[in-house]
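TICKET: design request
STATUS: open
ATTACHED STRUCTURE:
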């Protein structure tokens, strides 16, 4: 144990030197965009609850009713004891929302990506990812054992060149990208990417974790996965695809087969949130409108989604600005390597339908004074 502790301390010391050590901070979330840390009331711009639905009375009531009827947990793998009625209803609603034949709910978005790609690709196959793909997409690709290559961020021409050079020597091929990239807030040119993939008989998997409910217009991929924990205000992940693909996942996606099913409260909450999302287009439009208000006031490129990065550069400076904003009542967490490339530490500002214009303008004014 002495050598284990020494190893851990050495690693922690190195992280401290680079301002890269991460710490958990107790935080209370309230209605709207309210948060509290260390006794200080804050307006949170670091939450992915893009539509403000996690505290919606209908969503909370649905979760409470489901827990009362079916208990707090699913009881086991869905293939054994865990397939409570809310899961089937949620999958039907997700598939309809995405225009797909079927859907499958996983324990989280991370678990979905860990299971989907290895169920479709193996060591004789090819996977090509956008270089800025989320860590869980990388993890699923590597678990598959396939040849893994990257294409330049949002560059269909580079993707085409890679597929032209490598596709012929491989059995199956997958292209992985995101509709909205979580750290940059930009959107993939999906029509072009889908066209390139189709030309080379490659299947495209799109991660829509940060797009659903906010900016999900445009073409659909044959494999559309996402999360229930952001705009839908709950917890869990999903895949929307054809019925044969979903049926294959039920038997072959290890992160589905060998994991306890989603709790009834989480599934019911997401189901109700999806209904509200579809009923209230004005709620869906608000996060992007506010993000664009913010970028206009700071002279930044116009926001493409509810996520706006404010690039700082050095990790310690990003931490210092985040702390200064917290002192003024704004929670905007610094994002540092390895989540983002070295030298690109940033403030990741996330906008929600729960924010108002006064809060957005106040943050913009405070930040402008700090970054010049």
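STATUS: resolved
RESOLUTION: sequence designed for all positions
ATTACHED SEQUENCE:
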């Amino acid at each position: 144990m002495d050598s284990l502790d020494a190893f851990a301390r050495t690693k922690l010391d190195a992280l401290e030197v680079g301002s890269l050590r991460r710490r958990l901070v107790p935080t209370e979330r309230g209605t709207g965009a309210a948060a509290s840390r260390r006794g200080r009331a804050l307006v949170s711009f670091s939450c992915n609850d893009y539509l403000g639905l996690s505290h919606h009375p209908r969503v909370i009531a649905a979760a409470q009713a489901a827990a009362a009827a079916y208990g707090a947990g699913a009881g086991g793998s869905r293939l054994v004891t865990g397939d409570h009625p809310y899961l089937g209803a949620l999958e039907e609603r997700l598939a309809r929302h995405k225009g797909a034949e079927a859907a499958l709910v996983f324990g989280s978005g991370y678990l979905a990506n860990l299971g989907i790609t290895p169920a479709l690709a193996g060591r004789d196959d090819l996977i090509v990812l956008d270089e800025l793909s989320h860590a869980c997409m990388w993890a699923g690709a590597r678990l598959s054992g396939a040849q893994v290559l990257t294409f330049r961020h949002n560059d269909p021409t580079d993707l085409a060149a890679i597929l032209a050079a490598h596709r012929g020597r491989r059995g199956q091929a997958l292209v992985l990208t995101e509709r909205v990239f979580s750290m940059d807030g930009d959107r993939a040119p999906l029509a072009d990417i889908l066209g390139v993939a189709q030309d080379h008989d490659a299947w495209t998997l799109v991660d829509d974790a940060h797009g659903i409910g906010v900016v999900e217009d445009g073409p659909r991929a044959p494999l559309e996965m996402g999360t229930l924990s952001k705009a839908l205000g709950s917890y869990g992940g999903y895949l929307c695809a054809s019925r044969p693909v979903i049926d294959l996942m039920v038997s072959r996606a290890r992160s589905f087969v060998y994991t306890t099913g989603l709790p009834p409260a989480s599934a019911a909450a997401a189901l109700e949130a999806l209904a509200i999302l579809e009923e209230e287009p004005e709620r869906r439009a608000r996060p992007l409108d506010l993000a664009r208000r913010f970028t206009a006031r700071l002279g930044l490129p116009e926001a493409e989604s509810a996520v706006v990065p404010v690039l700082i550069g050095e990790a310690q400076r990003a931490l210092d600005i985040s702390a200064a904003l917290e002192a003024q009542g704004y929670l905007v967490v610094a994002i540092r390597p390895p989540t983002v490339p070295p030298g690109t530490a940033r403030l990741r500002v996330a906008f929600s339908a729960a924010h108002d214009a006064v809060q957005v303008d106040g943050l913009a004014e405070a930040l402008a004074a700090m970054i010049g």
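CLOSING REMARK: The two ends are 49 Å apart (CA to CA). The chain has a mean pLDDT of 96.
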